Amino acid sequence: MANTTAPISDMSPLTGLRVLDFSHVIAGPFATLYLAQLGADVTKVEKPDGGDVMRASPTGAYQFAAFNAGKKCIELDLKSTEGRSEALRIAQECDVLVDNFRPGALERAGLGYAAVKAINPTVIYCSISGYGTHHAPWKHRGAYDHVIQAATGMAMMSGNEGEPPIKVGFPVIDVMTGVLAAFAITAAVQERSRTGQGRHVDISMWGAALQLMYPFSVSALATGKSPGRVGNVGYSGSPAAEYFETLDGYIGLGANTPDQIGKLFPLLGLSAADAAQHLESGPGFARARDPKAFHDLLAGALMARTATQWEELLNAAGIPAARVRSLAEFTNEALASGALNPGVLSMGNIQMPTPGMGWTTTP
C-alpha cells in the first residue's frame, strides 16, 4: 500500500518516535494522526484485500486520507505465520504500539501487551476500545459511537424532558477517544523519558464520553442524579442563553450575566431598567423571575431583524452571539475570510483542519 501524504503540522516534537499502528475507522486512526502530524514515524498495518474499511467509505477516499495523513501504510496478514513474524519484528523496534481492535484480537495473534513487552520491555502499548480491557464484565462488549452515547447517558442529555433520546449528530465520542489516546500516549512518552519505563495505556470510549460530559458527570457522581434535559438553553442556564428565531433563521444568543442582559435590552428596544425588573438579584449567572415570560419577551423582540443583523449588532455591543450556520456554511465563510487555513493533502488535493489548528505557536 502506498504511503499517505507527508505531515503538514509546523511542530514536530515527536520526531524519531516510532509508532506501530493496529487501528481502523476513526478513534485509533485519529490518535495516530495526531502523533504523525507532530512528527512521529507511524506505520499503519492493514489487513489484506481491502485494508481499513474507511478506504471503502461511502463518503470517498478523502475520509481515509484525512484520518491517515503522514503514515506509512503496510499490508500484513496476521492470520499467517509470515505476517505475525513481520509484525513482531516491527513491534520489537517500536516505541509505541496502538491497538484499536476488539479486545483479545491482537492477543490471539501473539501481539498482546504481555507478548510485545517480553520482546520490547519499554514499549508504550495503547489499547483503544469501547469499554476498556481491564473490567472483565464489560471488556468483550463491542461498541460504536452511538452505542456508547446510549450507554453513558449522553443521548439523554440533548433535547427536552419527555422527548426520545437524541444522539449527537457526528461521531463525537470516536473523535474524543482519539484525542484522549494521543494525549495519554504523549504523557506516557514523557514519563518514559524520565523513568525509562514503558506502560500499558488503556483508553475506553465510555471514559471519553464522561470527559466530554465532565461537568454533568461530576454532578451525577456528587448527587446520584442526572441533570435535567434543557434543550437549547446554554450551560449557564441564563434565560438569555439560547437559540432564538429571527426574520430569516436562528441566532445563538449568549447573554449570560445581568450586565450582558443590561446591554442587550436597549438593542431590543427595551430599557436597562426593564431588564432589572425581570431578573432575580444576586451574583453569578442571570436568573429570570418568570422564565417563560422573559423568554417570550426576547423571542418577540428578536424577530425584528435577521440573524446576520443581530450577529453584527450584538457582537459590536460585547454580547456573544452567532447566527446558526450549517457546517459547510461555516467552513466556506472561514475559508473566504482567511480565518481557516487548512492543510492540503497531496492525495486528491484534499483539505483538512490539521490537529494543530486549535492552537498557535511561536518559535
Précis, in short:
With 363 residues, the chain is of the alpha/beta class.
Fold topology:
Blueprint: E1 18-22, H1 27-37, E2 41-46, H2 61-68, E3 71-75, H3 81-93, E4 96-99, H4 105-108, H5 113-119, E5 124-129, H6 145-152, H7 172-195, E6 199-204, H8 205-212, H9 214-223, E7 240-245, E8 250-255, H10 258-267, H11 272-278, H12 291-302, H13 307-316, E9 321-323, H14 327-337, E10 343-345, E11 350-352
Parallel strand pairs: 1-2, 1-4, 2-3, 4-5, 5-6
Antiparallel strand pairs: 7-8, 8-9, 10-11
Helix pairs in contact: 1-7, 6-8, 7-8, 10-11
Q: How would you describe this structure to a colleague?
A:
The chain is an alpha/beta fold and 363 residues long. It folds into two domains: 18-215, Crotonobetainyl-coa:carnitine coa-transferase, domain 1 (Rossmann fold, 3-Layer(aba) Sandwich); 240-323, formyl-coa transferase, domain 3 (2-Layer Sandwich). Helix content is 39%, strand content 15%. The strands form three sheets. It has a six-stranded parallel β-sheet, with helices on both faces. Helix 1 (27-37) links the parallel strand 1 and strand 2 (41-46). Helix 1 (27-37) crosses helix 7, helix 6 (145-152) packs across helix 8 and helix 10 (258-267) crosses helix 11. The longest helix is centred in the middle third of the chain and has 24 residues, at 172-195. It is elongated. The protein starts with 17 loop residues before the first strand and ends in an 11-residue tail after the last strand.
User: Termini distance?
Assistant: 36 Å
Report mean pLDDT, rounded to a whole number. 89
Q: Could you estimate the helical fraction of the residues in percent?
A: 25-40%
Cα radius of gyration in angstroms: 25 Å
Structural class: alpha/beta
Q: What percent strand? A: 5-15%
Q: Helical segment tally?
A: 14
Shape: elongated
The strand line-up of the biggest sheet is: 3-2-1-4-5-6
Uncertain stretches: none
CATH superfamily of the largest domain: Crotonobetainyl-coa:carnitine coa-transferase, domain 1
Task: Provide the domain count.
Answer: 2
